Amino acid sequence: MEDNCSNKICGDKKKLIARANRVEGQIRGIKRMIEEDAYCDDVLNQISSAKAALDGIAKVILENHLRKCVVSGIKNNEENKVIDELIYTLGKMMK
Amino acid sequence: MEDNCSNKICGDKKKLIARANRVEGQIRGIKRMIEEDAYCDDVLNQISSAKAALDGIAKVILENHLRKCVVSGIKNNEENKVIDELIYTLGKMMK
Amino acid sequence: MEDNCSNKICGDKKKLIARANRVEGQIRGIKRMIEEDAYCDDVLNQISSAKAALDGIAKVILENHLRKCVVSGIKNNEENKVIDELIYTLGKMMK
Amino acid sequence: MEDNCSNKICGDKKKLIARANRVEGQIRGIKRMIEEDAYCDDVLNQISSAKAALDGIAKVILENHLRKCVVSGIKNNEENKVIDELIYTLGKMMK
């Protein structure tokens, strides 16, 4: 049985940080656009792109979380804790 | 009639930059969580919070954009351009 | 200038009703699946499809509404009313 | 261990059907609004309400599915099948 993954992030850490770095760059770009009076539509489209990039990161983490933590948690009879957390997390993701 | 707002961002620039700064801090927090092997659910919830904060910024810009640029553009008979852009922008926001 | 469209639906009425009929059929299909104890994932996927179909209808109506009612309303100096309504509507669509 | 729930819907069947009936009524209301040339904003808001009602039904089914089928499937060593399906379903729900 796999280890409970509560003490390591789910997913390829290096790639996830590289993706988060790109989002950070996008946010800085958005700040610069606001400062330099960019056209509203362009700022809004950049915000949509940053959100889509965050969704991409979340999707990777969620998929790994399901395959690792959730499976091992349930096999270790911690289903109540694991599923309660998952429902809370999915609720926030779907809002 | 109001000026066409294509050369100034729609909304209180100072407040918008302050909000974008907070999002930038959230993204750095997410990177740190990934580096330090935070629990997946906690990272996912932080990503949802950053997305909600970006939505808040977009909502302010969109509302001001509608009240200013869209109204003045249409009054200046640029409705085709203004509405085409708006439909594209809303399409990205709703995806 | 176009007429204010407050007394006719924005979009091809016949096509919109045909699409709404298909959604009604999807909802009846979902009810049947629930009654016949279909597998949860299949029911959830049908619900997602019905939501996507509703989004498709909403997109057509919104686009036509922007091109017709919103433009004519603003040209008739009713921008406050028209934009207030639009912001409320978009707020509900984006929730 | 609970039974694998693949042969019964997750959730209180009677209540779920009652909720689906209400959505069906909403869709018929939307068709009537389109036929009677209701104001676009009103139709769009009704569509948003129907989507929210479908989300409510999906949320109940998903929560029960996680607590029952997913848990029992994993305990029965069918994690690959169960998690693959779940990822597909969540992907459609989050689109």
TrEMBL record, chains A, B, C, D:
InterPro entries linked to this entry: Metal_Tscrpt_repr (IPR003735), Metal_Tscrpt_repr_sf (IPR038390)
GO MF terms, alphabetically ordered: DNA binding; metal ion binding
Domain of life: Bacteria
GO BP: any one term: negative regulation of DNA-templated transcription
Pfam families, sorted: Trns_repr_metal
Gene3D superfamilies: Metal-sensitive repressor, helix protomer (1.20.58.1000)
PANTHER family: COPPER-SENSING TRANSCRIPTIONAL REPRESSOR RICR, TRANSCRIPTIONAL REPRESSOR FRMR-RELATED
Full protein name: Putative copper-sensing transcriptional repressor CsoR
Organism the protein comes from: Cetobacterium somerae ATCC BAA-474
Lineage: Bacteria, Fusobacteriati, Fusobacteriota, Fusobacteriia, Fusobacteriales
